[in-house]
Amino acid sequence: MNTEKEDFQVFIKPAGSKCNLGCSYCYYLGKGYDSADGAKTMPVEIMEKYIADHIKYSPGPEIFFSWHGGEPLLAGTGFYKKAIEIQQRHKPASCTIHNGIQTNGTLIDEEWCRFLAANNFYVGVSIDGPEKIHDTFRKYVNGTGSSEKAVRGYKMIRQAGIRNEILCVVSRENVSKPLEVYRFLKELGTGFITFLPLVVRDPSSPGKASEISVSSAAFGEFLSQIFDEWVSQDIGRIRIQIFEEAVTPAFGREHTLCIFKKTCGRVPVIDMNGDFYSCDHYVDNNHRIGNIMTSSLGVMLDSEAQKAFGREKLDLLPRYCLECDVREYCNGECPKNRFIETPAGEPGLNYLCQGYKIFFSHVRPFVEAVRARWLSRNRGAK
């Protein structure tokens, strides 16, 4: 095992961008490899080469595989049975393998539940809120909403005792209903929630976001209102990713979520044909680093092209961000959202800047209290 390497996460695309839904806000449909040869899943030889490389390059002793899409359940349980067989064949005795999968939930049935439970998968299901909200964007190609099947699939996962979380996309549709959305997700019984802001650039005006995007300020208020209810009712019972990230600086630790790290580049994509891309949001020819069959995962992760991609996040941060009093919380967030100008006209400001300032300023007293308590406890332990 290579214990000198820093941690990384790979988004594996076993079925490429294929999906059984046609969500109007999906950023991945049509991306990456076009399987004109009719291939439906990643070939076994590519899967094995990737898995072997991933295990070899991981610092261990916990090794994580993240299966994404499109819709990764389209690959079928047989594909993942083979993946687990390969993982077990290559893993050192001292290491533990973990698998996570992100799904729209509509294909979950008893067979999937048995398989996922038996193999201790961690499953994320995308649910944007109550049916009317969820079905605004998350539809089948024929226009039918997917809420009923998504919620049913999620409930089946919970009943099967499978570790799970809910990923909720925050758009113009649900951003004005923070507590309605949050309470609905709570009623489903979730113990972990990720809120993902929808930001889609307007193709006709590159410096603006499209009308389906979440308003920056409204996103900050959305998070703040949910935070207040979470603090008063749900702290210690429900984990919310961005709230956990907000507290990270209190302990002097690096963020775990790539969008809030100072630099990035450690969360690449492996497409179904083995192509390696710098990031899930940069699956294009300019960010194709190589292919797993002609190179190795470690070589591509540590390539100068990939390192340069990661450094740009910090190198291109506007002075407005460098001098910001909540910089340690967001570090300019994801580069894909940096398409507006600062008040002084400097390019490269994140579209969500205003919203993050609202939210992180709102939670700062809580974070500072946590920091003070932690420092006091540490001093007392000496």
In short:
The protein is of the alpha/beta class. It contains 13 helices and twelve strands.
Can you walk me through this structure?
The protein has 382 residues and is α/β, with parallel strands linked by helices. Helix content is 38%, strand content 14%. The protein contains 13 helices and twelve strands. The protein has helices at residues 44-57, 77-90, 110-118, 131-137, 147-159, 178-187, 216-234, 241-247, 297-301, 304-315, 319-322, 327-330, 353-381, and strands at 11-12, 62-67, 96-103, 122-126, 163-170, 192-197, 201-202, 205-209, 239-240, 269-270, 275-277, 288-291. The chain is globular, with a radius of gyration of 21 Å.
The total strand number stands at 12
The mean pLDDT is 95
Shape: globular
Please trace the helix and strand order, writing H or E for each element: EHEHEHEHHEHEEEHEHEEEHHHHH
The Cα radius of gyration reads 21 Å
List the helices and strands and how they pair.
Blueprint lengths: L10 E2 L31 H14 L4 E6 L9 H14 L5 E8 L6 H9 L3 E5 L4 H7 L9 H13 L3 E8 L7 H10 L4 E6 L3 E2 L2 E5 L6 H19 L4 E2 H7 L21 E2 L4 E3 L10 E4 L5 H5 L2 H12 L3 H4 L4 H4 L22 H29 L1
Parallel strand pairs: 1-2, 1-10, 2-3, 3-4, 4-5, 5-6, 6-9
Antiparallel strand pairs: 7-8, 10-11, 11-12
Helix pairs in contact: 1-2, 7-13
